[in-house]
Amino acid sequence: MNVLLALSISHLLNDIIQAVVPSVYPLLKTSFELSFTQIGLITLVYQGTASILQPLVGSYTDRRPLPYSLVVGMGLTLAGLTLLALAWSYPVILVSAVLIGTGSAIFHPEASRLARLASGGKHGLAQSLFQVGGNLGTSLGPLLAALIVMPRGQIHILWFGVLAAVALVLLARLSAWYRRHLTRPPQVGAVAPARLSRAQLGRAMAVLVALLFSKYIYLVTFTNYYTFYLIDRFGLSVAGSQIYLFLFLFAVAAGTIIGGPVGDRVGRKRVIWASILGVAPFALLIPHVGLALTAGLTVIIGVILASAFSAMLVYAQELVPGKVGLIAGLFFGLAFGIAGIGSALLGMLADQTGIQQVFALVSFLPLIGLLAGLLPEVGVSRER
Questions:
Q1: pTM score of the predicted model
Q2: 2, 132, 289, 304: which has the fewest Cβ within 10 Å?
Q3: How far is the C-alpha of 171 from the C-alpha of 168, rounded, in Å?
Q4: What class does CATH assign to 2-179+195-374?
């Protein structure tokens, strides 16, 4: 548990830093006179880099684990953060996004493997603890950016380098523990490997990809464009809109802890079904209500939607046993890639039709959760 908590804290620090990028979009948009399309391209570069590299890192480390790669990943993130604070042109911003994306690509697959190694057989709980740190960091990033960067300017992004330094120390200690326990035997109570035909496995993975698409396109709409939506529709200030974004992202962090342990007890499929499709009625109301109801509905959406990823990741690892790093890299990579491409396309759509039309359109995405009914049942513990 000490290792899991330390890993969750390191994920929190990592994702606070990474959340700075979308959090300062309003500042960058004004300073560099960027369009929504250019804003979307920053996310595409950052998320696309992470998307391509994470499955490659995960596949390689399945064969040859690299415990100290966690430290390398954080070092690259710190380099990208520093360059973003000093950026003098749009191309330099894109280079900083590449560095931050590369750091993320190295961090997530190995950190996910470490969480599973320290899980004691409770894989869903371990993954949720790991994820809740990241989602809490994602929620705190905009709030800290609003307090530290937005009133003072781009150069003050450098203050987040202190968090990176703390993370580097913590990850060095975790990496040492990881190296000592690489040969640990399988945990008692681990789930039995899924026995599916190739066709069943392919169909299950296709459904999971569709559900990831639904979740992350909808999620990136909020993480990257919710502030612009609130400013456009309700006339909020930039700082005021960041507070509402924090509420949504904090709800996402709070909801993350639910999916893993509940999936350990009742099965991943039920959690996946409820967490995607359960968002639909609230999402469909968002474009038609006032500010107070918008804030309340987004908190509910954040809690429900957040329970999906941990359950989906562990479910996929049970579908393909022995490929922990590959599956973690693939799913984190898909999440980043879908979010990056989606952000770029949504930015172009916002330039053409307006940000309010974008939110009206994406409100239908959670209905894709109906596909969860096609998933086979896996993940029943041997202890049961």
A1: 0.65
A2: 2
A3: 5
A4: mainly alpha
